[in-house]
Design brief:
The chain has one domain. Helix content is 71%, strand content 0%. The protein is built from six helices and no strands.
Length: 151
């Protein structure tokens, strides 16, 4: 039983870290719309990710996945530190140990940056959407139809 709880706790922490990395790496998709479906999928998944993070921080004081992993580790009989996942993750990846306060401030700054980029990218996507598939229209007709250089 304890082995399966340890495995589950490790899986939760791995998924947590993976989601954070993918969320950060996917930010350019909010601005670069070469693959429109992927941009839209990322937009909705990232909204759920950020909203879940903000709600769980308001309700629990930390990410729900951090709480879940800690409870699984404790149920498996492993003593855990009472620090946010991001602090432990940063320590594992970059070999630095930020304070809990600085980790929270960095996460809040990342969410603020995300919101700004999201709104700007959403605006660009809505402006680009109606014009991107005007294939078959010659250049003069495209110009008369209001087609930009991107068509």
């Amino acid at each position: 039983m304890q082995t399966s709880l340890r495995f589950l706790a490790s899986a939760v922490e791995f998924c947590h870290g993976l989601m954070m990395v993918l969320w950060g790496l996917g930010l350019p998709l909010l601005l670069w719309h070469r693959f429109e479906r992927l941009s839209r999928l990322y937009m909705w998944l990232s909204l759920v990710f950020v909203a879940g993070s903000l709600v769980s921080h308001q309700l629990l004081g930390e990410c729900v996945l951090t709480t879940l992993a800690r409870q699984l580790w404790q149920s498996a009989g492993v003593a855990t530190e009472n620090v946010p996942f991001i602090v432990r993750f940063t320590n594992q990846v970059a070999q630095i140990r930020p304070s809990t306060r600085s980790a929270v401030l960095i996460w809040e700054a990342a969410i603020l940056l995300y919101c700004v980029v999201f709104l700007w990218g959403r605006r660009r996507l809505s402006q680009w959407q109606p014009q991107h598939h005007n294939k078959g229209i010659s250049a003069p007709e495209g110009a008369r139809a209001g087609c930009s250089r991107r068509c």
